[in-house]
Design brief:
The complex is a heterodimer of chains A (258) and B (106). Chain A is α+β, with helices and mostly antiparallel strands and 258 residues long. Chain A is built from eight helices and nine strands. In chain A, α1 packs antiparallel against α2. The radius of gyration of chain A is 35 Å and the shape is elongated. In chain A, 23% of the residues are buried. Chain B has three helices and two strands. Chain B starts with 13 loop residues before the first helix and ends in a 20-residue tail after the last helix. Classes of the chains: A alpha+beta (258), B mainly alpha (106). Chains A and B meet through α6 and β7 of A and α3 of B.
Chain lengths: 258, 106
């Protein structure tokens, strides 16, 4: 009867009523019932957690030993030194087939053998593109005249539908005649951009006109066409030259050591 | 393999770019000068400008591509917003300025 009342009035009340009911029953039963055996399942209660802990401990031990074996030992030979240099670099770069301003085919094999500075941009950029190209031209100039270091500047367009080779030629010669302009079909450009992890997307389409949003990064590649360094927009021409010099000297020094 | 047509877009080469930048700078300078006047004309992306700068605006729109105009307007709006945040101008603050001497203003 008390339980029935409790259920109608809602959960809180039912809880209270049930508590009272149960306590009265308990008091009634206490006089008659046997005391329950208290420690019946205690032993089996302990087995499961201990086995779990033992398994976890074993797993940790195995991983510790594996880590020790996997770690490259200090003071390694030349081979592991080179491997470590390539391991620590991000996996950018890859083969590409593009066309330069003279309608010649250019692949990454043609660019091996000297340091290159790569920039992905497009000619219809309102302000960032021209600024970056001016920076690039100035850096190449300083490196060539003051430090006698030949770095090949390359401009790959991310807007191949509007940037034909002749357009690239007309655009780039205003900055520096040494800058090599590369374009190609949209598939080739997309593949190249994917290899170099360059993001680009058409934005702000007004009729036939559009801008291309992209990550304005300059990549410095060593003679093996591997990424050494990535420069963002924050660098100006002087800092760019300093850092390029540092990288080239570091590379030539380690080559001499090896 | 579809190649781009061999057309050369002259409005992105150096001369066109420089004249575009000049027109843009003169327009924004006019806007700064006439900042006290009420902006009535509509530019792109929510930017408004006073009628005194109309001829500069026309020159700007003529010299630059429409996408460039929009891009520069957006940049200008962002710059103004940051300036407003850094400004110490009390009149543009919110409704309550602390510390308050009393809770309810008579």
């Amino acid at each position: 009867m008390a339980c029935f009342y409790g259920n109608r009035l809602g959960p809180f009340w039912s809880f209270q009523f049930r508590c009272y009911a149960r306590s009265s029953n308990y008091k009634n039963r206490r006089l008659t019932a046997q005391p329950e055996p208290l420690h019946s399942h205690s032993w089996s209660n302990f087995i499961l957690p201990t086995t779990l802990m033992v398994i976890a401990g074993a797993g940790l031990l195995i991983r510790y030993y594996n880590d020790e074996r996997r770690a490259i030992p200090e003071g390694a030979s030349q081979v592991t030194e080179l491997k470590r240099r390539t391991i620590n670099k991000p996996a950018f770069g890859g083969p590409f087939r593009l066309i330069d301003t003279e309608y010649r085919l250019v692949t990454e094999c043609d660019l091996r053998g000297c340091w290159t500075l790569l920039y992905f941009g497009y000619t219809s950029s309102p302000d960032v593109g021209p600024e970056e190209l001016k920076k690039m031209a100035k850096a190449i100039d300083i490196l060539d005249s003051e430090h006698n270091m030949k770095i090949k500047p390359i401009f790959i367009t991310i807007d191949p539908q509007r940037d034909s080779p002749s357009q690239l030629q007309a655009y780039l010669k205003e900055f520096d005649t040494r800058i090599v302009g590369l374009t190609g079909s949209i598939d080739a450009i997309r593949q190249t951009a994917q290899e170099y992890r360059v993001y680009f997307k058409k934005v702000e389409e007004i009729g036939q006109d559009y801008l291309v949003a992209s990550s304005h990064n300059m990549y410095l590649m060593d003679p093996n066409m591997e990424i050494v360094r990535c420069f963002t927009q924050a660098y100006n021409a002087e800092e760019l030259t300093e850092d390029i010099l540092k990288e080239v000297k570091k590379c030539s020094k380690s080559d001499k050591q090896a | 393999m579809v190649m781009a047509s061999d057309k050369i877009h002259y409005d992105v080469l150096a001369d066109a770019r420089n004249s575009c930048y000049k027109a843009r700078d003169s327009f924004y300078a006019c806007m700064e000068k006439e900042a006290s006047k009420k902006p009535t004309e509509i530019a792109t992306v929510g930017l408004l400008y006073p009628a005194e700068c109309k001829q500069f605006r026309d020159e700007f729109v003529k010299q630059c591509r429409p996408t460039w105009v929009k891009h520069f307007d957006r940049q200008y709006c962002a710059k103004k917003k940051v300036q407003r945040l850094l400004d110490n101008d009390e009149s543009r603050r919110g409704p309550i300025s602390l510390p308050q001497p009393y809770t309810f203003k008579p």
